Amino acid sequence: MDASIASASRAAVVTPSDTAIVGARALYIGTTGDVAIAPRRDMDPVIFRSVPAGTILPVHAAIVALTGTTASNIVALF
After folding, report:
1. For the chain, which terminal residue's Cβ has fewer other Cβ atoms within 10 angstroms, N or C?
2. Residues 20 and 61 sit within 8 Å (Cβ to Cβ)
3. What's the mean per-residue pLDDT of the chain?
């Protein structure tokens, strides 16, 4: 199966940071709030507003920024 569409095989808790590289292919959002994601290190974060608890965001997240993120209990899926 093409790795770009395969299910995640690893997961890790995310601590939002404006500089730490996450490199996830999707994010699980445990607690409702905003999530600021930079799809690449050289891009400014985009804020996903009011993401409901239990949502899986199917977006590549190089960085989950502290600035702009109010959601918590975020898990990176690789």
Report:
1. N
2. no
3. 94
